[in-house]
Give the backbone structure.
Amino acid sequence: MKDVFISSDNIITSLGFTTGENATNMFAGKTGIRLTENEHMAPSPFYASLVDSSLLRNKFSAFDDPDKFTHFEQMAICSIKDALSGSEIDFADPGTLFILSSTKGNIDLLENENKLRYGKERIYLWNTAQLIQRYFKIRNEPVVVSNACISGVQAIITGARLIRAGLFENIIINGTDIISEFVVSGFNSFQSLSTGPCRPFDKTRDGLSLGEGSGTIILTGNHSLSSRSEQIMVGEGFSTNDANHISGPSRTGEGLFIAINRLLKKMHVSIDHISAHGTATLYNDEMESIAITRAGLQSVPVNSFKGYWGHTLGAAGIIESVMCIYSIRNSILFNTLGYHTSGVTNPIIIVDSFISREINNCLKIASGFGGCNAAILFHKK
Amino acid sequence: MKRSYIISDYCSIRQNAVEVNNHIVYNGSGADFGKFSNDIYKNFAVNYPKFHKMDNLSKLAFLSAELLLRDKNINQKYSGDDVGIILMNASSSLDTDRRYQNTISDRANYFPSPSVFVYTLPNVVIGEISIKHKFYGEGNFFITEKFNPSFLVSYVEQLFNTETIQCCIAGWVEIDGNDFESLVFLIEKPDKTDAGIAIFEPATIQDLYDKKK
Amino acid sequence: MEKIILKLKEEIIEVLNLSEMKPEDIDEKAPLFVDGLGLDSIDALELTVLLDKKYDLKINTVEEGKKILYSVKSMAEFIIANKKH
């Protein structure tokens, strides 16, 4: 199987504008989830992790006019710019493709007051992807991966597949989603929002906290363009469907189990660490504990990152994968912020402190609306 | 380039007609998608009450898959986790997004609808098809400005080549108001299909797409 | 009670898209969830929205919701008991 290397990465969240800045704040036990009072977004306050728009505009104005770009586009462009600075990949190379991972894109443009601000086409995800592609002078028409909350993981799986098939040499993957009235009201209508910063896998968990952010991973099949620091590879990845319900996860964790099992059968490695989806809803975390146990991984340390930045939807799979890669490189397991006592029936091992340990690989898993699931492995060369 | 996979069947649903494998199987007035889709549902005795809860994108994809797979016994031929569903469109779930936005745009009449919100993601159509037919395999939903045959073919081919799937439902399902079109293929390996429509390659599917335009 | 039950059945058919059903197909005493109509979690949430939108009534806890939404009859009883004028 052809090697797929990670060339560089970046994340932008409420906890910082670079991967390093985020890690520093995470080690300090900080959460970006705040009680947010924003009449425009919701009639009552809600817990969420927002990227400060004035900080973002400030950063963006160093290279372009923030008035010409939406909040979403500013995050994505800043993130890709930072990742690019850490990579020698030539974006204009004909073997380079841009993949955008997002659930809703510029969805705030549906609001009455925003409708006339930009052109009619700005709301379309293909338009957002093209805007970014052209901004960075990437030659090929971009592709958007939109698969609910597994979008980010699915985008990395897609990128790795395209490199292995010899269709492209370098893939720039960005995952971004914003918090908007649209999304807050929707999750509220599902009664799935937490009453405090979310508590993944915890006995007292009562829902998810929304987050916004942007993550970039640059993949390459070219060894000489791989990361300047330790090489981390993208292994196998699979997506599946529960074939059960369009919004609730399968009670037996069927789809997620099949995805993990396929990966284990193909990779024949022992798993050192699992980064779960861990949204802190009653059903998701329970389902994941079942799937992990069914796959025989009940002794593998599992964490969730959702307590730091909330659930960043289409960006989650990228942002969290970046931190998986960070974990491997820096031999550190991140504490599951918000977790204290297990509230899932299967006794899986939840990481509840920062642990220094050599990690050779990390299994990233995700699940989403539509009954979709995904699993991917990152590993040392 | 040697192409190895076969279009066993296809289904196309456009403004006025439903076509399966070069035959028009239903003619209707496509003026209103709601009515047209309901007429198709009744005409082919689909008999699946959950259909009426779906949004328009899901109805379009669901009916396309339903007519594509009718009498094919795919579940007998393949294990559910070996069937992939790879779909694409330009508008994502925007048609439904606008509908949902209407349930929240007036604060004086603010009733966000969960049953509409759940369909504001394009991949939910994959869920609906999977639930009906018990498919557990690889799924992906891509958004591109225009129908992109070479990307679709390349992506599906590498899923077959890597033995990730043994069979695939692939295609384009697009709706934006009363503009709608779907073109969905059943792709199989040559040794698994008796008679095919054609080789699964970009030129062929571009021709099928352009046919009724 | 009869009037409210009939109106409720029509509203339920409409908001839950049960287009193949008529009010006379629904037994007001039968459970709405698990057995009976076999509605799911999204349907439960929509019924909560229905009670809010059409009757200005809110359900405060999950336990309360399970009792109120047990059947069409229990929903009607809740509406009558809390009727706002």
Q: What stands out?
A: Chain B touches chain C through nine residues (CB under 8 Å). The CA atoms of residues 7 and 187 of chain B lie 5 Å apart.
